[in-house]
Amino acid sequence: MAEIIIKNLRKEFGEFTAVQSSTFKIEDGEFFMLLGPSGCGKTTTLRMIAGLELPTSGQIYIDGEEVSQMPASQRDIAFVFQMFALYPHMNVRKNISYPLISQGMSRSDVREKVEEVARILGIEKLLNKPVGGLSGGDRQRVALGRAIVRDPKCFLMDEPLGALDAEFREYMAEELRALHDRMNATTVYVTHDQLEAMQMGDKIVVMNHGVVEQFGRPQDIYDKPASMFVAEFIGSPPMNFLKFHGNVEAGDSQVSLHHQSLPMPTLHEAFDGDMVYGVRPEHIRFSDASSYRGEIIATEYLGTTQIVTLDTANGSVKARIPSELKVSTGETVGLEFNPKTISVFDSQSGRALRSALNEGVLGHG
Amino acid sequence: MADVRLKGISKSFGKTLAVDNIDLTIENGGFVVLLGPTGAGKTTILRLIAGLEQPEEGEIYIGERSVIGETPAQRDVAMVFQQYSLYPHMSVRENLAFPLRSPILRTPEAQIREKVQQVAEVLLIDHKLDNKATALSGGEMQRVSIGRALVREPSIYLMDEPLSSLDAKLRSDLRIELKRLHASLGATLLYVTHDQIEAMTMATQVGVLDEGKLVQFGTPREIYENPVSLYVASRLGSPRINALPADLFSGSPAAAKTIGLRPEHIQHGEGQPATVARIEPLGDQTRLHLTLQGHEIVTLIDPHTDLEPGDILSIQPRNPLYFDANGARIAQGG
């Protein structure tokens, strides 16, 4: 079991800075997500925790011990890669047993442990098969099995579900999380899939261009994004951005967009210039009472809900509404925004203005 | 463009009956999505229409013409495969132009140029037109391979999971793009996937396949709200429909073996006490894992719920779906 502290961690590859100066803390037993688009530095961060890359500067503490310059072999961690590396000449059982046998565990203990892991992963029937003939999904389960079987201090996983198809990925995500809840081992997990991060993580670090954009609990990050990048990267469809120009004062709880006064949480700072009114699709309601109008240009049926795309004076907007509601393309409807949920951003820097919504959550990063 | 009709089509591979007596009409201008798990026969149907496989029985018509005896080239279809196959020695522009340079088509150069430019813009690869095909990312290569089908105007576009190798963001962009293309070109598409989101958001009609049989065909809404069987009901909907013993709740019809509960079929606050096992935030909503008398139930709840694991939540069905011992839907009055 392990607590991991990352302090001012930086990594340069020649001219290129992969990770600028990351600081965050992973509590003992947490399922911790490093989330961001490709090239954001998340995998480099993970590889530094593993000891596969050495940082240019900064510290990594595992259980209080500074390990940033230590080789991987001394860190007692297990790494699960995006591309599963298995021993092709061994069968599934031997692949999973290998780390235990090399630790000198007795045959009967190995057998028991391997069978437990195989049961957890649903690969009991494959144990005596060669790894060569396995599907991508099964190969990845074997690779997971090989990491789990050792009971290491912590697991580091680099998009372990990335190669699986949607249905199986969902299933494996739940399995992995349930597995974590049973074993309670600290897990650091890299993904570019925001839903996977929301679903599985106790905490999330969102990275972009080597910088930590936000760090916190999934629902807080979703509800109170620190930047437009986070608001757009998390959520599907992403947060709607209505652009406007104006000035606001601390204490304001209304803004004027296209001659319409729209509500927002009380602001805690003033701003003058180009701003963005951010509203999530599920916080938009259709209401004849509202004079903020939009024309319906598309609907996407999703079963329980539907996504409606509208044209407004401030750009395209997507609303998520119950699918019982019958709407048709070409119709013009009034839009109501749930005032408590609104984020207002500085359009140029993308930073969220401080308000009654996000006070206390921002400033983690 | 024309209607494409399959009549009594069957195809086996050795002892496996891959496609079992399928009747299917893809109307001119339709966007039909075939949905099913691996091995359901989706890809085989595409390959039969393309002429890459021959059926043992049945007829395939494009318009009024039977195409069974025709070669793939004569059938005038365009196929996009799951795995992009580009000419590695050619530029993106040459790859896109290649289908138009076919000696049968004799497309004038100016027209080729215009068409390639137009398709490249739609797929957001116009800035890469002069790159080598091999100097692209995976997502870009797949867009080029979709583009190679789009430069032509065939009777039907056949697409075999073209988005499955792309990342989530690009997948959702291209879903909207394909839907827009379909609407603006009036193209006829037959699209194969195991991704229910693609089926629900893009299709004019969905065909659900189970072990080579077409088990239901209808609009996404019909399939979701009126599934003919438990199998069909569990193909659409996220979280997946909960299938529980019918006697778990009172009021089930006598013939019912299984009760099917989607999140909107579960009413909170009344009925049987269920225990909260896990709370999973998705952002816009929260997935609630419950246990009721040893059965797991997954439903949705407001993200700002104050429920915690171990809490009790009473639930009862509201207009649920019922299925008999064979998994067939039991129709209900009202």
What this model shows, in words?
The complex is a heterodimer of chains A (365) and B (334). Chain A has helices at residues 42-50, 92-103, 107-121, 136-148, 166-183, 194-200, 218-223, 228-233; strands spanning 4-13, 16-26, 31-35, 57-62, 65-66, 77-80, 154-158, 186-191, 203-208, 211-216, 240-248, 254-257, 260-263, 271-279, 284-286, 293-301, 305-312, 315-322, 332-337, 343-346. By secondary structure, chain A is of the alpha+beta class. Chain A folds into 2 domains: 4-223, Rossmann fold (3-Layer(aba) Sandwich); 240-346, Nucleic acid-binding proteins (OB fold (Dihydrolipoamide Acetyltransferase, E2P)). In chain A, a hairpin with a 2-residue loop joins strand 17 (305-312) and strand 18. In chain A, helix 2 packs across helix 3 (107-121), helix 2 packs parallel to helix 4 (136-148) and helix 3 packs across helix 4 (136-148). Chain B folds into 2 domains: 4-227, P-loop containing nucleotide triphosphate hydrolases (Rossmann fold); 238-323, Beta Barrel (OB fold (Dihydrolipoamide Acetyltransferase, E2P)), CATH 2.40.50. Chain B has a 6-stranded mixed sheet, sandwiched between helices. Chain B has a 4-stranded antiparallel sheet with strand order 2-1-4-5, covered by helices on one side. In chain B, strand 13 (266-281) and strand 14 form a beta hairpin. Classes of the chains: A alpha+beta (365), B alpha+beta (334). The A-B interface holds A 37-38, 165-167, 181, 192-195, 198-199, 218-219, 222-223, 234-237, 280-282, 298, 300-304, 307, 320, 323 and B 37-38, 164, 167-169, 172, 176, 179, 194-195, 197, 200-201, 220-221, 224, 236-238, 262-264, 278, 280-287, 300, 303-304.
